[in-house]
Amino acid sequence: MSQNQTDTPEGILLVDKPQGITSHDVVSKLRRIFHIKKIGHAGTLDPMATGLLVMLIGKATKVSQFLMSMDKEYTGTIRLGQSTDSQDADGELVEERPVPDLGEDAVRKEMKSFIGDQYQTPPMFSAKKVNGQALYKLARKGKTIEREPRVINIAKFEMSRFELPEIDFLVACSKGTYVRTIAHDLGERLGCGGHLCRLHRTGVGQFRVEKSATIEALEGMSPSALRKRLIPILQAVPSHAL
Predict the structure, then answer these.
(1) Of 60, 119, 162, 177, which residue is 20 to 30 A from 66 by alpha carbon distance?
(2) From CA 241, how far away is CA 62, in angstroms rounded?
(3) Are 192 and 102 members of one domain?
Protein backbone atom coordinates (compact mmCIF):
# COMPACT_ATOMS: atom_id res chain seq x y z
CA MET A 1 0.00 0.00 0.00
CA SER A 2 1.31 3.39 -0.95
CA GLN A 3 2.01 5.84 1.83
CA ASN A 4 0.77 8.68 -0.35
CA GLN A 5 -2.34 9.90 1.45
CA THR A 6 -3.98 10.95 -1.83
CA ASP A 7 -4.01 7.34 -3.05
CA THR A 8 -7.13 5.23 -2.65
CA PRO A 9 -6.68 3.02 0.42
CA GLU A 10 -6.42 -0.71 -0.22
CA GLY A 11 -5.85 -3.77 1.91
CA ILE A 12 -7.50 -6.12 4.35
CA LEU A 13 -9.19 -4.77 7.47
CA LEU A 14 -10.20 -6.93 10.42
CA VAL A 15 -13.44 -5.77 12.03
CA ASP A 16 -15.13 -7.02 15.21
CA LYS A 17 -18.82 -7.04 14.24
CA PRO A 18 -21.31 -6.24 16.99
CA GLN A 19 -24.59 -8.09 17.43
CA GLY A 20 -27.74 -6.91 15.68
CA ILE A 21 -26.37 -5.60 12.38
CA THR A 22 -25.76 -7.30 9.06
CA SER A 23 -22.43 -7.73 7.30
CA HIS A 24 -23.75 -5.37 4.63
CA ASP A 25 -24.34 -2.74 7.35
CA VAL A 26 -20.62 -3.00 8.17
CA VAL A 27 -19.78 -2.46 4.49
CA SER A 28 -21.97 0.66 4.44
CA LYS A 29 -20.34 2.06 7.58
CA LEU A 30 -16.83 1.46 6.20
CA ARG A 31 -17.74 3.16 2.92
CA ARG A 32 -18.59 6.27 4.92
CA ILE A 33 -15.43 6.02 7.02
CA PHE A 34 -13.05 5.48 4.07
CA HIS A 35 -15.04 7.55 1.54
CA ILE A 36 -14.77 4.84 -1.11
CA LYS A 37 -17.35 2.50 -2.63
CA LYS A 38 -15.09 -0.46 -3.40
CA ILE A 39 -15.45 -2.40 -0.15
CA GLY A 40 -16.45 -6.02 0.35
CA HIS A 41 -15.99 -8.88 2.78
CA ALA A 42 -14.70 -12.46 2.79
CA GLY A 43 -17.69 -14.21 4.32
CA THR A 44 -20.78 -12.90 6.10
CA LEU A 45 -21.98 -13.23 9.66
CA ASP A 46 -25.67 -13.45 10.58
CA PRO A 47 -27.06 -10.40 12.43
CA MET A 48 -27.16 -12.42 15.68
CA ALA A 49 -23.47 -13.35 15.39
CA THR A 50 -20.52 -11.26 16.56
CA GLY A 51 -16.81 -11.34 15.88
CA LEU A 52 -14.36 -11.36 13.04
CA LEU A 53 -15.28 -9.96 9.65
CA VAL A 54 -12.47 -9.87 7.09
CA MET A 55 -13.18 -6.69 5.16
CA LEU A 56 -11.66 -5.97 1.76
CA ILE A 57 -10.80 -2.38 0.94
CA GLY A 58 -10.17 -1.16 -2.62
CA LYS A 59 -8.25 -3.58 -4.83
CA ALA A 60 -8.33 -6.20 -2.06
CA THR A 61 -11.87 -7.06 -3.22
CA LYS A 62 -10.22 -9.00 -6.07
CA VAL A 63 -9.02 -11.70 -3.66
CA SER A 64 -12.39 -12.31 -1.99
CA GLN A 65 -12.78 -15.84 -3.40
CA PHE A 66 -9.39 -16.93 -2.04
CA LEU A 67 -10.07 -15.50 1.41
CA MET A 68 -13.61 -16.90 1.53
CA SER A 69 -12.20 -20.41 1.05
CA MET A 70 -10.34 -20.24 4.37
CA ASP A 71 -11.39 -22.33 7.37
CA LYS A 72 -13.32 -20.62 10.16
CA GLU A 73 -13.32 -20.86 13.95
CA TYR A 74 -16.15 -19.96 16.32
CA THR A 75 -17.23 -20.06 19.94
CA GLY A 76 -20.88 -20.14 20.88
CA THR A 77 -23.73 -21.45 22.98
CA ILE A 78 -26.32 -24.11 22.15
CA ARG A 79 -29.61 -24.20 24.05
CA LEU A 80 -31.08 -27.68 24.21
CA GLY A 81 -34.80 -28.46 24.43
CA GLN A 82 -35.96 -25.70 22.08
CA SER A 83 -36.02 -25.86 18.27
CA THR A 84 -36.54 -22.80 16.07
CA ASP A 85 -37.42 -22.46 12.39
CA SER A 86 -34.09 -20.71 11.65
CA GLN A 87 -32.04 -23.01 13.94
CA ASP A 88 -30.90 -19.95 15.93
CA ALA A 89 -32.26 -17.47 18.47
CA ASP A 90 -33.52 -15.08 15.78
CA GLY A 91 -36.11 -17.61 14.64
CA GLU A 92 -39.57 -18.58 15.86
CA LEU A 93 -39.89 -21.33 18.44
CA VAL A 94 -41.40 -24.38 16.73
CA GLU A 95 -40.97 -27.14 19.31
CA GLU A 96 -40.09 -27.64 22.97
CA ARG A 97 -38.97 -30.97 24.39
CA PRO A 98 -37.71 -31.95 27.83
CA VAL A 99 -33.93 -32.18 28.10
CA PRO A 100 -32.91 -35.67 29.26
CA ASP A 101 -30.61 -36.09 32.24
CA LEU A 102 -27.57 -36.04 29.97
CA GLY A 103 -24.11 -36.66 31.32
CA GLU A 104 -21.26 -34.40 30.26
CA ASP A 105 -19.25 -37.33 28.90
CA ALA A 106 -22.18 -38.53 26.78
CA VAL A 107 -22.59 -35.10 25.23
CA ARG A 108 -18.85 -34.80 24.56
CA LYS A 109 -18.96 -38.21 22.85
CA GLU A 110 -21.86 -37.08 20.64
CA MET A 111 -20.01 -33.87 19.76
CA LYS A 112 -16.93 -35.90 18.83
CA SER A 113 -19.02 -37.83 16.28
CA PHE A 114 -19.34 -34.62 14.24
CA ILE A 115 -15.60 -34.52 13.48
CA GLY A 116 -14.54 -35.08 9.87
CA ASP A 117 -15.97 -34.79 6.35
CA GLN A 118 -19.75 -35.01 6.05
CA TYR A 119 -22.77 -33.82 4.14
CA GLN A 120 -24.69 -30.87 5.58
CA THR A 121 -28.05 -29.65 4.29
CA PRO A 122 -28.26 -25.82 4.26
CA PRO A 123 -31.12 -24.47 6.41
CA MET A 124 -34.13 -22.88 4.73
CA PHE A 125 -33.36 -19.62 6.55
CA SER A 126 -30.12 -18.97 4.65
CA ALA A 127 -28.86 -16.72 1.87
CA LYS A 128 -28.05 -19.73 -0.32
CA LYS A 129 -29.81 -19.49 -3.66
CA VAL A 130 -31.74 -22.27 -5.37
CA ASN A 131 -32.88 -21.56 -8.94
CA GLY A 132 -31.84 -17.95 -8.45
CA GLN A 133 -33.93 -17.36 -5.33
CA ALA A 134 -32.58 -16.94 -1.80
CA LEU A 135 -33.85 -19.69 0.48
CA TYR A 136 -34.75 -17.31 3.30
CA LYS A 137 -37.21 -15.48 1.03
CA LEU A 138 -39.04 -18.75 0.42
CA ALA A 139 -38.85 -19.63 4.12
CA ARG A 140 -40.51 -16.34 5.06
CA LYS A 141 -43.44 -17.35 2.85
CA GLY A 142 -43.70 -20.61 4.76
CA LYS A 143 -42.23 -22.68 1.93
CA THR A 144 -39.76 -25.53 2.29
CA ILE A 145 -37.95 -26.96 -0.73
CA GLU A 146 -35.35 -29.65 -1.32
CA ARG A 147 -31.80 -28.45 -0.69
CA GLU A 148 -28.71 -30.12 -2.06
CA PRO A 149 -26.49 -31.33 0.79
CA ARG A 150 -22.88 -30.23 0.47
CA VAL A 151 -19.63 -31.61 1.82
CA ILE A 152 -18.18 -29.79 4.82
CA ASN A 153 -15.41 -30.60 7.25
CA ILE A 154 -15.50 -30.13 11.01
CA ALA A 155 -11.96 -30.21 12.37
CA LYS A 156 -12.84 -29.47 16.00
CA PHE A 157 -16.06 -29.46 18.05
CA GLU A 158 -15.30 -29.15 21.76
CA MET A 159 -17.29 -28.28 24.86
CA SER A 160 -16.14 -25.41 27.09
CA ARG A 161 -19.12 -25.19 29.48
CA PHE A 162 -21.77 -27.72 30.49
CA GLU A 163 -24.76 -26.21 32.30
CA LEU A 164 -27.92 -27.80 30.95
CA PRO A 165 -29.91 -26.74 29.05
CA GLU A 166 -26.91 -24.79 27.70
CA ILE A 167 -23.62 -25.95 26.22
CA ASP A 168 -20.75 -23.63 25.30
CA PHE A 169 -18.55 -24.84 22.48
CA LEU A 170 -15.63 -24.15 20.17
CA VAL A 171 -15.84 -25.30 16.55
CA ALA A 172 -13.33 -25.17 13.68
CA CYS A 173 -14.82 -25.90 10.28
CA SER A 174 -14.52 -25.48 6.52
CA LYS A 175 -16.12 -22.70 4.47
CA GLY A 176 -19.84 -22.97 3.91
CA THR A 177 -20.52 -24.68 7.23
CA TYR A 178 -23.69 -23.57 9.01
CA VAL A 179 -22.89 -23.60 12.73
CA ARG A 180 -26.58 -23.24 13.61
CA THR A 181 -27.23 -26.45 11.70
CA ILE A 182 -24.55 -28.16 13.81
CA ALA A 183 -26.41 -26.89 16.91
CA HIS A 184 -29.73 -28.13 15.55
CA ASP A 185 -28.31 -31.52 14.56
CA LEU A 186 -26.63 -32.03 17.95
CA GLY A 187 -29.96 -31.35 19.65
CA GLU A 188 -31.67 -33.92 17.44
CA ARG A 189 -28.99 -36.54 18.13
CA LEU A 190 -29.44 -35.93 21.86
CA GLY A 191 -33.17 -36.47 21.49
CA CYS A 192 -34.41 -33.07 22.66
CA GLY A 193 -33.77 -30.58 19.86
CA GLY A 194 -31.77 -27.41 20.22
CA HIS A 195 -30.78 -24.13 18.64
CA LEU A 196 -27.83 -21.77 18.47
CA CYS A 197 -28.30 -18.88 20.90
CA ARG A 198 -24.86 -17.24 20.69
CA LEU A 199 -22.11 -17.21 18.04
CA HIS A 200 -18.78 -15.40 17.98
CA ARG A 201 -16.31 -15.84 15.11
CA THR A 202 -12.78 -15.95 16.48
CA GLY A 203 -10.78 -16.83 13.38
CA VAL A 204 -10.71 -16.87 9.57
CA GLY A 205 -7.62 -18.65 8.27
CA GLN A 206 -4.62 -16.94 9.88
CA PHE A 207 -6.67 -13.89 10.92
CA ARG A 208 -7.77 -13.58 14.57
CA VAL A 209 -10.50 -11.52 16.17
CA GLU A 210 -7.97 -10.26 18.77
CA LYS A 211 -6.34 -8.23 15.97
CA SER A 212 -9.62 -6.66 14.86
CA ALA A 213 -11.07 -3.22 15.60
CA THR A 214 -14.59 -2.24 16.54
CA ILE A 215 -16.57 0.01 14.22
CA GLU A 216 -16.64 2.67 16.95
CA ALA A 217 -12.84 2.62 17.17
CA LEU A 218 -12.50 2.91 13.39
CA GLU A 219 -14.90 5.85 13.27
CA GLY A 220 -12.68 7.73 15.71
CA MET A 221 -9.40 7.12 13.85
CA SER A 222 -7.49 9.60 11.73
CA PRO A 223 -7.00 8.73 8.02
CA SER A 224 -3.36 7.82 8.67
CA ALA A 225 -4.29 5.57 11.60
CA LEU A 226 -6.92 3.85 9.45
CA ARG A 227 -4.35 3.18 6.74
CA LYS A 228 -1.93 1.69 9.25
CA ARG A 229 -4.57 -0.90 10.20
CA LEU A 230 -4.82 -2.16 6.60
CA ILE A 231 -3.01 -5.44 5.98
CA PRO A 232 -1.26 -5.37 2.56
CA ILE A 233 -2.80 -7.83 0.11
CA LEU A 234 0.50 -9.61 -0.57
CA GLN A 235 1.02 -10.13 3.16
CA ALA A 236 -2.23 -12.11 3.38
CA VAL A 237 -2.57 -13.74 -0.01
CA PRO A 238 0.08 -15.69 -1.99
CA SER A 239 1.04 -14.08 -5.28
CA HIS A 240 -0.42 -16.95 -7.32
CA ALA A 241 -3.88 -16.11 -5.96
CA LEU A 242 -3.76 -12.53 -7.28
Answers:
(1) 119
(2) 10
(3) yes
Is residue 65 located within the same domain as residue 88? no
Quick one: 157 exposed, middle or buried, by C-beta within 10 A (0-12, 13-18, 19+)?
buried
Sign of CA dihedral 168, 174, 175, 180: negative
Residue 6 lies in a domain: no
d(CA 138, CA 128) in angstroms, rounded, equals 11
Give dist(CA 3, CA 230) in Å, integer.
12
Query: Rounded to 5 degrees, what angle do the CA atoms 196, 200, 33 make?
Result: 130
The residue annotated as part of the active site, out of 46, 85, 90, 185, is 46
Whether 60 and 227 have beta carbons less than 8 Å apart is answered as no
In-domain check, residue 4: no
> Is 46 one of the annotated active-site residues of the chain?
yes
Structural domain boundaries, residue 175: 72-203
In angstroms, the CA 68 to CA 49 distance is 17
The angle that helices 104-112 and 179-189 make with each other, rounded to 10 degrees, is: 130
